[in-house]
Amino acid sequence: MLEGRVVGFLTDVTGVEDAELAVPWQAVLAAGGRPVLVAPRAGRVLTVLDGAAPAGAYPVDRTLAQVCPDDLAMLVLPGGTLSCDALRMDPAAVALVRGMAEAGKPIAAASHAPWLLIEADVVEGKELTSFPSLATDIRNAGAIWVDEPTVVSERRYPLLTMRRADDLPAFTEALPRLAA
Domains in the chain, start-ordered, CATH in brackets? Predict the structure, then answer.
């Protein structure tokens, strides 16, 4: 399904939920994909546990300036309140998400990552889930929020969304199929 295909993981350099980066990363590897970590700047991505406690550090493979939708088969947006909030304010991150959606390429968004989808204006009419505190934001953007572990929406572009880290098993099971 992902054999040899490049899957971008877009995060900010701080505040990324460790499991929401590491677990899908391993699922992409297991499906034969080539994950690359994309961030606004070079260096390391620092992850957290439960939004605050330091967890790990991962090397950035490419900066936002070094990647475009043509380079990627799929885009994964790990959660983390701080990371997702910073990315939705980054014009290059928003442009990458919008470009992937306009190209009809799959996007997978975990917990707070739909903030970035909203900022990119690519959720109208789509059904999705997220961390529950984003429900009103999603509805205000013209999407349909549902309280489910994961949701796949095929309208305009394939989109997989996940509610919270507890839902990672369902998210990682669906992830490789999204790019099929």
Answer: 6-178 (3.40.50.880)
Q: Is residue 129 classed exposed, middle or buried when 0-12, 13-18 and 19+ CB atoms within 10 A define those classes?
A: buried
Which residues are annotated as catalytic? 112
For residue 153, pLDDT over 80 is answered with yes
Burial of 5 (0-12, 13-18, 19+ CB in 10 A): middle
Please say if the pLDDT value at position 9 is more than 80: yes
Entry pTM: 0.98
Strands 127-128 and 74-77: unpaired
Strands 6-10 and 34-39: parallel
Rounded Cα gap, residues 178 and 62, in angstroms: 23
